[in-house]
Amino acid sequence: MKRIAYLIALSLLSVLFYGNLSAQKTTLSGTVIEGEKNEPLENTMVTVLKGCKKQIIAYALTDNQGKFSLSVLFQDSLHISFSGLGYETQTFPLSPDKLRFQIKMNVKPYNLREVSVKATRIIQREDTLTYIVSNFSEVQDRTIGDVLKKMPGIEVSEKGEIRYQGLPISKFYIEGIDLLENKYGIATNNLPHKNVKSVEVLEHHQPIKAFKGLSFPENAAINIKLKDEAKAQWIGNLQAGAGGDPFIWDGRLFAMRIVPKWQSLNTYKTNNCGTNISNEIQEFELADLLNAKENRYKTNDYIQVNPESAPDLEEKRYLFNKSHLFTTSNGWKLNDNYQLNAQVTYLWNRLRSDNASRTTYFFEDSTRIVNESEASRDLKNELSGRLTLFANTTGYYLKNELQTNLRWNDTDINTFGDFANRQSAETPRYQLTNNLELIKRFGQQSVTFTSYNKWLYEPQQLKVNREAQHEYQKADNSVLFSNTAFAYVSAFSRFILTLRGGFKFLYRDFNSDLKGINPISTLLKNNTVSSYLNPYITPSLEYNSSSVKVTLNVPFHYFRYRFQDWVFHDKRYKNRFISAPSININYFITPLLTIKAQGSIGNKPLDESLFFRGYILQNYRNLQQGLIDFTTDKVKSVSAGIVYRNSLKSCFYNFNMTRMWTENAYINGRNFEGDYIVNTRFAQKNDRKSWILTGRFSKGIDKLHGMIAIDLMYINNRTSMMQDGIQTPYTSDWFTISPQFNFRPVSWSNIVYKCTFGRNILELPTTSSSSNRFTQSLEIVFVPTQQLDIKLKGEHYYNELNAKQSKTLFMADASFTYRISPSFEIGGIISNILDKKVYSYTLYDQLTNYDYRYMIRPRNYMLQATLTF
Prior knowledge:
This protein is mainly beta and 869 residues long. The protein contains four helices and 50 strands. The N terminus is likely disordered.
């Protein structure tokens, strides 16, 4: 096996040899001690400087034993500097002949009338960045999620997903314990920041100990470090609030205890004031550590009856809800190596909304307009449970996860206008999964076995009642999916060879029946079975040096498809070979700056969930018809990016640009037939060209106790679609830029400002349309005394409805908090002080323009009391 590995490695040497010789780095190391006591000196700053301008090339801090280590690319005019508070700075020229240092720091005497000590906001030790929470938090912040949003380099989405330098995190720990796994929103939205000492960002974190030295992830992990007084005891809070016009409430309970033998985190929340608590149990994407992307199988939502949501506007403005959420997460340390975790969540969430819309469909030489309004009620019942047993040692790794997700969703929508009707949809979903991962380490080699199995059942139905017609759609979908894989990993010299192979199996039984519809077609039933057998092998080779990392993946998939249609007596077998090789290159220019490049080419697996002939009523207006075609899409993509991180200056940025060329085997289309829109696919090649640009810049402003950040996104698509038998090319552009900043100009006040500008463009052969949106919010907090803080917040929304018409909306809130004691406080809030009623916006998508008007929550007030324990 090693002989094969060396042969594969030689194929990359011609590409890497020159870069390795011309960009070889050297490790500097040493020890710093206190001159008089001869004791190790911690937190001494070691900096490599270039030229007379003293440009920082690399830096590190000494550990508690006074030791340091850093890598540097030797150049002319380099110096190494040692400095520390209260000690004389020492600087020496760097030479390749001297790579290890033994430094004695001499005390520097001071005669100061007044001493001012400033805490460091971010501390870096090797690949760990430590954010001191007290240096980022403000009086209005409640949870650790509120503070994470103010830390440079860290992004927190509106739903609570955490990214570091543009990539999703790999793990979310509390005191080094992975208790919540991918539902870490439970902690970020509930754990009081006052109980947290620091947030650690573990860069290039490898959570699987048996993979140390065999795998080098790019993604970082987050570790929450609690204060000493918050450890080994129950901590939490109880909040109750009520108000009026109409009656509203908000109740919350949080309790957590973290000890080595047992960890427990529990929450209960209920409200009807517009707070969306369902986001807290969302399963966020984590970094793919064991090729889990091979386990992804997602079915289509055949019935699509959902209330519309308003983009840009905060959910609390338009969410009319009654919500209850209970979560409990517990972990038990069985012995030195084994841990057992159990988690249960339950959500009951009833939503209602009122909105009006004007939809314009663009044709080659005309338009079609539909005016409607709707009143909806949506009820969600979701119960999930997870039981995980795992062991994580340097010799072996074991994880077995059993999870169930049960969902009962009911939706009722009354529609008025051009197509008056009432829709009632029941969309339950029952899912059971088991995921087994086992790794055994043998020196510089490892063997991995994984087995992922999923069962899914979706018995769904839709009723549509019109004035003279009653329609009924039934759609039952059952799925059995399995993926079993083996992997061998070997590390030699600077190369890591991975040979991964496995076998996937899918069986899907789909039945649907449509009754009561106008006779536009006789294709109203489906009774199909789709399945495939998929053996695959994915060899990959990774090269690592101090200056470059190159990863080459060459996956090979063989699919044996089987399709049977019992209604039309059609039975087919097809064989398909699919491969999509890719290469990733990371070039580490300095320890602070990395350039990335990626390229891939190949074809995509088929979406067999669209293999059906009969019509499916998705909602009162749209019918869907599938296409049975075994031709695969071809995709090419290249991307380039840059990542910069300077924790000393609290400066972080990442930008990425992607170009994609897709040769689709089919073209999406829609036909207007009477009161219905028939959405289907046609077996005709259709090219799509795309540009995607994303980026984020964030910079801490220590003197103002704040941060400035800018988010950027641009998406361009060029493709075409069929509409009433005519192929229409179009181009869509979407651009947004979102600056924000927060700072504390004086000790008794802080300011938070955010704004977003968005532009949406749709270009057709004979016309073009566009709309602009601009939103901004300003939050000012006053702290007249240590017990009292007052918050004022204003929001401004500007939306272009068309070239000559726009809408402007101003909203305002006010609140206060009074701390009676360290453990008890009271507060109050007035929302929507100006009592605004309606929010409007415009959106372009494919060959369609949507103009929406939403009813928003009226002015209301609430008094609250919070007890902390």
